[in-house]
């Protein structure tokens, strides 16, 4: 199966261009959608789910426009939006039953799927509790179960791990990775480490434009030699801030340790000054967070 | 903070739009009433000041004589105009006998060509004459109060009646201050028009409810109070600012609404000299207050504004207290209903108790509360209502403000429901094991009926319908009872035999009358005693009471017989009183319509806004059945619910007519009723009612679709209900209160189907229904696009589809 996004553009009423000629072909696997707030991630997801109408461009599944496919497209679609508003007076079970009916799943099959998914998202104990009494993380898990009910071939997840505790986050992340063999999973998140381990490719988006589409390793390798860690004094730190990008500052017993990103030439100048001042330098491995920060700044 | 709250309020454009719309409506209603009910005042206004100027040049007695003569002269001219218009020679001769040259005088006056001027002058002259008579008799009225008090005191009326004594003394003392007061005639139409206006109060109250909801609801629905209360100024200060915002907005509303009425009144009539005592105006003649007209107007409207502010404060306090906006609105609506019920049930003059004036609606009866003399018993002491009202309103204002702030600060505003315990778990397991419908349609209906409490609201609506259903037999007067008895006696198809029977009964009664005449003659000749004559007269009189109902039955039967002969059909003699209730009570149908529409709005208001509120539309839309099937499932539920309510109301009407008049002739031809002779075709009454009832229900269903479509643009159930009430119920209310045009064309007509079908025939109802279906269809079309979140592209859509296919 192939999901083709062709020259998708979308503007809002006040003239803001949310998505600008966005194109991407997606095969089964997990795709991490990264971008700052207002980059166009939610717009893209709403266009993919048919909740918004594009100004131009198309979304095709195996060559057929999704607009023509109608219910057949929605049948293969699973969507988990980023929201906290659910039906407060529904129990988790009733909520999933309701969505099973909307997804046209026969009752017997729905029962099996619901039982299985409640186990997966660890809500079995809370199956008869009202959603109004759920915590934010529990609501997220109920929403994820809803998205997986019809065993979708295209799964669109908007911040699936937001509000989850680390244990649940890892659990959900692993499950997503497990089921990604025959599914196209588009996962938008701000928790870069979530996609770092499971994403086949990263789509980096800013101001509605696709900045980069690469494997995580590829993106990180492009940053080789551009990431350094320097032990530095407090007063010197403020001088550095305007000159290069600081991705992290952590305080050790020897003093603050700063993670610097930058073009090699620019960095060398700064680093030589640091050496001259007697600061400890260390070359570091780039991670996806560094890539994200660097590419976003770059534009 | 105060400015910030105001800015927040002004950002609600729909509310500003509603305020402006109601402001325009207020002015339109006032003007409409002046044009329809007080058109004579409008005609008289120009001449009023002219006459008054002429009177001012004369002495009091001379002016009274002159204006009196002028009124008589104009009155005679008016009689001449009527006689000429109707060709009434007898009246003309009589007038000529009294004044031989009246016809010439009338023609030379030029009023023959200007009848409006005659009417206006006549009205102005008679008003000034009335005012002068009233001013002349005012000292007598004051003297009467003293005399009454003295007479009652001398006749020991006050013995063992301490309150009555105190009231008598107080009345005398209060009115003694008015001795020697100098009253003067002047323009009073404007002041009367202003004081009798109540629609402005009602419209402001509607906006007060909105504003109370709006200052609290946005935070309540988004669980923001917890956050706000954690800020430095987020408790008492925030609550105080919210209450102050509401109060200041209410003051602004009062200024706008009452101010616009003042401006229109000044433009139409003027207010006359503002420095004359209020007793100069007959409407306010019962007041003992020493105050000028200008002072009274200012005082009354300041008090009304204060009352409105106190009510707003109390409502805001309730909204804060109840947390759930829907429940708050329910409580406010129930309170409004109860107060209106009491207001309508008890006339102000009857309720001379302080309890009566606890009803906030009484505070807006401006003439009764501020321009009359009412004293209420407060712990055995008579207290003037003006002072009592002021103290009460101020107390409510202060108490509501304090309570609002206290409740806001002390109560948690965002409680979450949690379920714990073995019982909860067991109940959950049990519920889980029960069978459930797997189909989307049933799931959706189940969700709306159960989870969204539609079923509960439906049962409540059923209870409301049952409450408004008349269940007691009507107390008919003697003539109507007799009429029903005759109808019962001659019931069935009308034939010559029926007519003969009625005539025979008529002859029997006529014979009795003749016999009584004979007895009268014998009494004159002294053949019988007076006692015997009186006894006989009593018996005959009793019998003769039947004559008028019998004639009514005879006329009815004769009309039916004529119709039968003309159309070759067989009709029945039946109870026209019940027929009148079934087919001619437009007011009753409008009342039913108001209840039906209110029920439909409350029931359906949550269907789409509920999804919007929970931000679920995006999620629902991208499921397999989440688009057209779900949209139609929701619409079908709306249609079914509205049909149920409308049919429930229809059944209620049928039940009412059975209970009130004991009517059972459901199978007679509908044309048996005089009101339904226009109906074509053979149809029994039950068939006719069923057809029109179903058509009516279909019309209500169309209105429900229009409402449901509108709700797609609302993110909040409360707004949906407010908009629904403004669009569908307000026109009905206006129609009910007598303002006919143009409200009849806003969908109201679907509630008059039996009435209209009887009057205009069935074809028109189909046309009305077709219009309703078109309106529903168009609104559904727009709603469908809105539901899909798609733009309208006139003409381009097909092209787009083609290009998509090419790809």
Fold topology:
The complex is a heterodimer of chains A (299) and B (807).
Chain A: E1 3-11, E2 17-26, E3 29-34, H1 41-48, E4 56-61, E5 64-65, H2 66-69, H3 71-75, E6 77-80, H4 92-102, H5 107-120, H6 136-148, E7 154-158, H7 166-178, E8 184-188, H8 192-198, E9 201-206, E10 209-214, H9 216-221, E11 227-231, H10 234-241, E12 245-252, E13 255-261, H11 264-277, E14 281-283, H12 288-298
Parallel strand pairs in A: 3-8, 3-9, 6-7, 7-8
Antiparallel strand pairs in A: 1-2, 1-4, 4-5, 9-10, 11-13, 11-14, 12-13
Helix pairs in contact in A: 4-5
Chain B: H1 2-10, H2 13-36, H3 39-56, H4 60-86, H5 89-98, H6 102-109, H7 115-154, H8 162-176, H9 189-196, H10 199-221, H11 225-229, H12 236-268, H13 293-322, H14 325-345, H15 366-370, E1 375-378, E2 381-384, H16 385-410, H17 422-433, H18 440-451, H19 454-468, H20 478-489, E3 492-493, H21 496-525, H22 530-544, H23 547-567, E4 572-573, H24 576-583, H25 586-604, H26 609-613, H27 617-621, H28 628-661, H29 685-711, H30 717-736, H31 753-760, H32 762-788, H33 797-806
Antiparallel strand pairs in B: 1-2, 3-4
Helix pairs in contact in B: 2-10, 2-12, 3-4, 3-7, 4-5, 4-7, 7-8, 9-12, 10-12, 10-13, 10-14, 12-13, 12-16, 13-14, 13-16, 18-28, 19-25, 19-28, 20-23, 21-22, 21-23, 24-28, 25-28, 25-29, 25-30, 28-29, 29-30, 29-32, 31-32
């Amino acid at each position: 199966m192939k999901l083709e996004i062709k020259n998708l553009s979308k503007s809002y009423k006040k003239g803001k261009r949310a998505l600008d000629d966005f194109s991407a072909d997606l095969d089964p696997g997990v795709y991490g959608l990264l971008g700052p707030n207002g980059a166009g991630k939610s717009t893209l997801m709403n266009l993919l789910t048919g909740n918004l109408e594009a100004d131009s461009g198309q979304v095709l599944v195996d060559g057929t426009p999704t607009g023509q496919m109608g219910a057949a497209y929605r049948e293969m679609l699973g969507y988990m939006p980023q929201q906290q508003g659910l039906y407060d007076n529904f129990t988790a079970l009733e909520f999933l039953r309701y969505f099973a009916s909307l997804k046209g799943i026969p009752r017997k099959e729905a029962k099996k799927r619901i039982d299985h998914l409640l186990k997966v998202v660890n809500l079995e104990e809370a199956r008869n509790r009202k959603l109004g009494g759920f915590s934010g993380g529990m609501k997220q898990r109920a929403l994820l179960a809803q998205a997986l009910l019809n065993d979708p071939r295209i799964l669109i997840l908007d911040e699936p791990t937001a509000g989850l505790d680390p244990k649940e986050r890892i659990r959900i992340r692993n499950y997503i990775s497990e089921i990604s063999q025959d599914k196209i999973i588009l996962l938008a998140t701000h928790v870069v480490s979530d996609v770092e381990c499971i994403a086949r490719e990263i789509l980096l988006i800013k101001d509605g434009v696709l900045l980069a589409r690469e494997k995580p390793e590829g993106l990180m390798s492009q940053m080789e030699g551009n990431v350094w860690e320097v032990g530095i004094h407090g007063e010197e730190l403020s001088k550095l801030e305007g000159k290069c990008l600081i991705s992290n500052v952590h305080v050790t017993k020897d003093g603050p340790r700063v993670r610097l990103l930058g073009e090699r030439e620019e960095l060398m100048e700064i680093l030589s000054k640091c050496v001259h001042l007697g600061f400890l330098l260390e070359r570091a491995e780039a991670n996806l967070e560094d890539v994200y920060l660097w590419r976003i700044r770059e534009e | 903070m105060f400015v910030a709250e105001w800015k927040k309020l002004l950002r609600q454009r729909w509310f500003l739009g509603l305020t402006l719309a109601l402001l325009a409506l207020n002015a339109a209603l006032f003007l409409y009433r002046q044009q329809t009910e007080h058109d004579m005042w409008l005609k008289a206004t120009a001449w009023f000041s002219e006459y008054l100027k002429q009177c001012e040049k004369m002495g009091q007695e001379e002016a009274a004589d002159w204006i009196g003569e002028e009124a008589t002269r104009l009155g005679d001219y008016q009689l001449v105009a009527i006689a000429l218009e109707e060709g009434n020679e007898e009246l003309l001769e009589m007038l000529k006998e009294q004044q031989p040259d009246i016809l010439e005088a009338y023609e030379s006056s030029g009023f023959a060509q200007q009848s409006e001027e005659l009417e206006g002058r006549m009205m102005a002259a008679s008003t000034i004459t009335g005012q002068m008579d009233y001013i002349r008799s005012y000292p007598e009225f004051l003297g009467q109060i003293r005399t009454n008090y003295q007479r009652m005191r001398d006749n020991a009326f006050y013995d063992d009646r301490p309150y009555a004594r105190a009231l008598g003394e107080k009345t005398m003392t209060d009115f003694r201050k008015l001795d020697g007061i100098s009253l003067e005639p002047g323009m009073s139409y404007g002041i009367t028009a202003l004081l009798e206006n109540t629609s402005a109060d009602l419209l402001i109250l509607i906006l007060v409810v909105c504003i109370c909801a709006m200052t609290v609801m946005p935070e309540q629905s988004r669980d923001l109070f917890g956050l706000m209360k954690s800020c430095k100024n987020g408790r008492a200060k925030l609550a105080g600012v919210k209450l102050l915002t509401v109060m200041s907005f209410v003051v602004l509303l009062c200024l706008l609404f009452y101010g616009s009425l003042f401006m229109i009144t000044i433009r139409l009539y003027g207010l006359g000299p503002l420095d004359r005592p209020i007793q100069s105006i007959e409407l306010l003649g019962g007041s003992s207050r020493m105050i000028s007209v200008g002072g009274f107007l200012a005082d009354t409207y300041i008090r009304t504004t204060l009352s409105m502010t106190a009510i707003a404060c109390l409502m805001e306090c309730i909204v804060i207290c109840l947390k759930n906006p829907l429940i708050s609105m329910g409580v406010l609506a129930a309170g409004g209903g109860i107060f209106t019920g009491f207001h309508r049930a008890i006339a102000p003059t009857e309720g001379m108790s302080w309890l009566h004036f606890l009803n906030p609606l009484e505070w807006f009866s401006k003439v009764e509360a501020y321009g009359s003399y009412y004293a209420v018993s407060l712990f055995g002491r008579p207290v003037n209502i003006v002072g009592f009202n002021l103290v009460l309103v101020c107390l409510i204002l202060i108490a509501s403000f304090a309570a609002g702030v206290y409740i806001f600060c002390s109560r948690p505003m965002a409680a979450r429901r949690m379920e714990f315990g073995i019982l909860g778990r067991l109940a959950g397991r049990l519920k889980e094991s029960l069978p459930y419908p797997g189909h989307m349609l049933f799931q959706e209906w189940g969700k709306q009926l159960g989870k969204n409490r539609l079923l509960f609201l439906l049962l409540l609506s059923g209870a409301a319908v049952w409450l408004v259903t008349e269940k007691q037999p009507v107390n008919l007067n003697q003539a109507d009872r007799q009429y029903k008895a005759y109808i019962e006696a001659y019931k069935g198809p009308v034939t010559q035999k029926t007519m003969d029977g009625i005539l025979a009964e008529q002859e029997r009664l006529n014979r009795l009358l003749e016999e009584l005449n004979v007895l009268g003659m014998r009494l004159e000749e002294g053949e019988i005693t007076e006692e015997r004559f009186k006894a006989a007269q009593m018996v005959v009189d009793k019998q003769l009471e039947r004559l008028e109902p019998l004639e009514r039955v005879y006329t009815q039967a004769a009309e039916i017989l004529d119709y039968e002969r003309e159309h070759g059909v067989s009709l029945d003699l039946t109870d026209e009183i019940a027929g009148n209730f079934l087919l001619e009570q437009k007011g009753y149908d409008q009342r039913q319509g108001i209840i039906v529409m209110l029920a439909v709005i409350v029931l359906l208001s949550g269907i789409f806004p509920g999804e919007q509120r929970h931000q679920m539309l995006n999620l629902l839309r991208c499921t397999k059945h989440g688009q057209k099937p779900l949209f139609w499932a929701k619409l079908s539920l709306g249609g079914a619910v509205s049909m149920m309510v409308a049919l429930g109301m229809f059944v209620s009407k049928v039940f009412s007519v059975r209970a009130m008049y004991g009517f059972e002739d459901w199978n007679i031809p509908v044309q048996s009723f005089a009101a339904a002779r226009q109906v074509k075709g053979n149809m029994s009454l039950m068939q006719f009612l069923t057809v029109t009832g179903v058509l009516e229900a279909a019309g209500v269903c169309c209105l429900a679709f229009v409402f449901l479509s509108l709700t797609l643009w609302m993110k909040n159930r409360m707004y949906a209900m407010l908009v629904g009430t403004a669009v569908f119920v307000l026109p009905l209310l206006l129609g009910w209160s007598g303002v006919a045009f143009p409200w009849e064309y806003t969908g109201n007509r679907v509630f008059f189907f039996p009435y209209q079908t009887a009057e205009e025939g069935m074809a028109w109802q189909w046309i009305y229904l077709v219009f309703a279906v078109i309106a529903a269809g168009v609104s559904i079309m727009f709603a469908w696009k809105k539901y899909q979140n798609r733009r309208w592209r006139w003409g381009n859509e097909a092209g787009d589809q083609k290009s998509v296919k090419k790809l």
